[in-house]
Amino acid sequence: MADDTDDRGTGGGTHPAAPLPLLIVDGANVVGSVPDGWWRDRRAAAERLRDRLVTYANSGLPGCPGPLDVVLVVEGAARGVESVPGVRLEAAPGSGDDHIVELAQKAAGRPVLVVTADRELRRRVQEFGAEVTGPRAVRG
User: Fold this and answer.
1) Running DSSP on this structure, what letter comes out for residue 111?
2) What is the predicted pLDDT for the residue at 109?
3) What is the pLDDT of residue 1?
4) Which residues lie below 8 Å from residue 119, measured CB to CB, with a gap of 6+?
5) Residue 25 φ/ψ, nearest 5 degrees
6) What does the DSSP 8-state code read for residue 16?
7) Closest Cα to residue 134, out of 120, 118, 123?
8) What is the CA angle 57-61-62, rounded to 5?
9) How far apart are CA 71 and CA 83, in angstroms?
10) pTM for this structure?
11) What angle do CA 20, 23, 27 make, to 5 degrees?
12) What angle do CA 21, 23, 25 make, to 5 degrees?
């Protein structure tokens, strides 16, 4: 009988590779955490954050070693920002917070770290086992 297990990243063994930890970044919250004029061009601010996040895809964060699957959730005027290698952009169809909660819920059984300072969002994602950290973790 053929072995259907996934052996990527296991040296050819029969055990499935562990999924990468998921880093979900609340784009609006992180961008808004520094009064640097981001409100004049929200899309450009989201692009700058996206570009900074590329580093963390490989190196990880303190307490969350890389490589990481990095997702930047954007909403509003930042919805047109494109993904780049290492950072996947997700444009929230409605509330960015609701989309982040949905992503955390779908990642059950996988390590998840959500970057936000929003207390209510922190509470909601922790219900699904996600860890949380503040915007300073990714502001560079």
Assistant:
1) -
2) 83
3) 34
4) none
5) -110, 125
6) P
7) 118
8) 160
9) 9
10) 0.86
11) 155
12) 170
Q: Which residue has the tokens 């936000």?
A: 116
Instruction: Tell me the average confidence (pLDDT) per consecutive run of 10 residues in the chain, 140 residues long.
Output: 38 63 96 88 94 94 92 92 96 95 93 96 96 91
Alpha helices (H) along the chain:
27-31, 42-59, 96-106, 119-126
Query: Could you tell me which residues come within 8 angstroms of residue 65 by beta carbon, excluding any fewer than 6 positions away?
Result: none
Q: Which residue has the tokens 């190196």?
A: 59
Task: Supply the pLDDT for residue 63.
Answer: 83
DSSP state of 20: P
What's the number of CA atoms in the CB half-sphere (13 Å) around residue 37?
A: 4
How close are the terminal C-alpha atoms of the chain, in Å? 51
In angstroms, rounded to a whole number, what is the distance separating the alpha carbons of residues 135 and 8?
33
- Asked if 28 and 75 count as a contact pair (C-beta separation under 8 A), the reply is yes
